[in-house]
Amino acid sequence: MNCLKKIKWWTVIINGVLILLFAGCKKDDATPALNWSPLLRNQEVVSIVAVNNNIFAGTNKGVFLSTNNGIGWIAQNVDLIALTSLAASGTNLYASTPLGVFLSIDNGNSWSDTGLPLDYFTCLAVTSSDIFAGDYGNVFSMNHLNSVTAGLANQQVTSIAVSGDNIFVGTGSGVFLLTSNGSSCAQVMTDQYVNSVAANGPYVFAATGTQSSGSVFLSGNNGSNWERKLQINTRIICLAVSGNNIFAGTNNGVYISGNNGSNWVAAGLTKQIVTSFAIVGGNIFAGTNTGVFFSPVRL
Fold first, then answer.
1. How confident is the model at residue 145 (pLDDT cuts 50, 70, 90)?
2. Is residue 24 situated within a structural domain?
3. Strand partners, 225
4. How many domains does the chain have?
5. Is residue 253 situated within a structural domain?
6. Residues near 173 by Cβ (< 8 Å), separated by ≥ 6?
7. Degrees (nearest 5) of the Cα angle 237, 227, 161?
């Protein structure tokens, strides 16, 4: 964890006694404060997403819906189990599973097959005009109903982030940069197990590591160069970006940066395995191994 303000100290002599006065390490004023409250309980949440004012939590027991900022939850489809990821485009809700990708247009009440191959999909990413799904060795496009790249052979796809015409794919051996039409595929990060990628305008973030260590890397030039911005002794599972705020979910709580990754502080949910985030207005929802937690994002 980094501090923006170094420890300062002064010496004072009172009645011949030397006294040291310290000003401790202080959180960056630009870093939001988080105060978490539990919402959905006793559920292992693997993915969380917002559709307008509705919050969806994908769990090992199906999809749960909240229409009131997480105060109450309804089990929408207990048959859609073994979810790996949720994503939303407009009012369309998508779920990836070991049996393919499914679509709901009625807030999760019913689901239909999207037509993508019957495969074990691990992650999803959406744009205003397309949805991308990753499995072992491929990224599929909903528009084309086929793989947009054959350059990921023997790669376990763990995460996808879309920025303009570029698709950043996290894998077990680094980050690949694809174009949306599949015309090119290039590896832009090597020798790292990437758990999550996130894009914010010209910036791309990659969370790497294993159970006992984790790092967040930043690239400002589409992956040509990377700089390590955070290194901690626990696995970093997921990332979320909102403006200059970067949220990292780990095996032991949340870390946050308020200045595009330059400095980080621990932000609660200690001992929780944080698997996903959804940001709605000035609020953040975190999916964990025990349920959903909520916090306002306060500067």
1. low
2. no
3. none
4. 1
5. yes
6. 155, 187, 190, 191, 192, 193
7. 45
Instruction: Tell me the two tokens of residue 207.
Output: 């969370």
210 token code pair = 């294993």
* Beta strands across the sheet bearing 245-250: 236-242, 245-250, 253-257, 265-266
Using a cut of 0.70, tell me whether the model's pTM lies above it: yes
Residue numbers of the domain that contains 252: 31-298
Nearest CA to 272 out of 246, 229, 231, 238 is that of 238
Find out whether 67 and 53 touch, Cβ atoms under 8 Å: yes
Instruction: Report yes or no on 63 lying in a domain.
Output: yes
Question: The tokens 């207005």 sit on which residue?
Answer: 281
CB 218 within 8 A of CB 205: yes
Query: Does residue 3 belong to any structural domain of this protein?
Result: no
Which residues, at least 6 apart from 172, have a Cβ–Cβ distance to it below 8 Å?
Answer: 155, 156, 158, 193, 194
User: Which CA distances in Å does 193 have to 35, 108, 170?
Assistant: 31, 33, 8
More confident residue, 200 or 195: 195
The CATH number for 44's domain is 2.130.10.10
Q: Which residue has the tokens 């694809």?
A: 178
